[in-house]
Amino acid sequence: MSKARRLALDGAMLCVALALSYLESILPAWTLVPLPGVKPGLANIVTVLLVRRGYVADAAAVSFARICLSAMLFGGPVSYFISLSGGAFAFFALCVCTYALGKFVGPLGTSVMSAAAHNIGQIFAVSVIMSPTAAIAYLPVLLFASLFTGTITGIILILLDRVKFPLS
Amino acid sequence: MNTKIYKSRAVLPGDVAVYIIVAAVAVLTSIALGTNDGRPEYVEINSGGQIERYPLYEERKLTLSNEGYLLTLVIESGRVWIEDADCPDRLCVKTGKISKPGESIICVPARISVRLTGGKDDSDAVAW
What we know:
The complex is a heterodimer.
Chain A: H1 3-26, H2 44-52, H3 56-74, H4 77-100, H5 107-129, H6 132-136, H7 139-160
Chain B: H1 13-33, E1 42-47, E2 50-55, E3 60-66, E4 69-76, E5 79-85, H2 91-94, E6 104-107, E7 112-117
Antiparallel strand pairs in B: 1-2, 1-7, 3-4, 4-5, 6-7
């Protein structure tokens, strides 16, 4: 893939991820998940898709840029740090599931694991900047939520696996 | 570069394992945190590192301010909730009412956390 093509692909993917982030921020909380603070993680679909198609570095770059941009547009410095920690944990889990465990774990397991890691990463960040005891109290509920949100994004990924990539 | 399209079956055995593991960790942490039993006695408010305690069974309305945000906290008949907040996401308000030991309300932008202590979970440390 040429340099220009790769740049265009990553740019397009960043736009999709940012649009999905925005969609999540304007959707009423109860639309997909009836818990305060729990989001379906639609933007992560883009990251998972790129990693599963072999564009690991591109996925990391798109994910990082998306987190920076959405913090600038919809969040603040504290939420930026929390998102970044969640994003890094999720990306690590995603790479492990796709490359080390790819023969056993499919899209559903990958996105559930990634969602769980994202929530653990966020709790880790809240523990660091605020109170660990208060933050850890959220862990069970967020882990249960990740089973649900991971399933939603996993189903979307199964459907996307049947689609041929336009830029390869 | 590897651009192959994954055409594996939709559900693999490892997927089931992932669901079981995540659910098991959730159940175990919930048991370890002991949020479901005992009776809390205090409301512990951590406002940017400054910790204050109030008895849970005394009705009270507090205004908490930190990082330029204002939160209105209500303690009433053994339950605690944030009635109003001027932070952007208002997740602390949406969290609703808490009444069990170990339960907490966190407002990230204001760096304020509220936790119920006492009862069975008497220590400040989390038992793992």
